Amino acid sequence: MDSLSKVVDKGTDWLTKSVGREIGYFFIYERSIKSLDKECERLENIRSGVQQGAEASRRNSRNLAPSVQAWLTSVDTTTADVATILQ
Prior knowledge:
With 87 residues, the protein is mostly helical. Helix content is 91%, strand content 0%. It has one domain.
C-alpha cells in the first residue's frame, strides 16, 4: 500500500504543477496582449504627431526625408499586424 500511495502522491504532485503552469501561461498571455494593445495605442499617438509634422512640411513646400516616409509606412504595417492579432 505504501508504494501505491507514493505513486499516487507523485502523480498528484505532477498533475498539480502541470495545471498550475498552464494557468500561469494563460495569465502571462493575457498580460502580454494587454501590453501589446497599450503599446500599439502609444505608437499610433506618436505616428499621429509625426504625420501632422509631415503634413505641415508638405504645406510649406518642404520635402519629407525618405526615412520619415519609411517610418510612417512601417508604423502602418505594424499597427495593421497588431490589429489582426488582437481580433
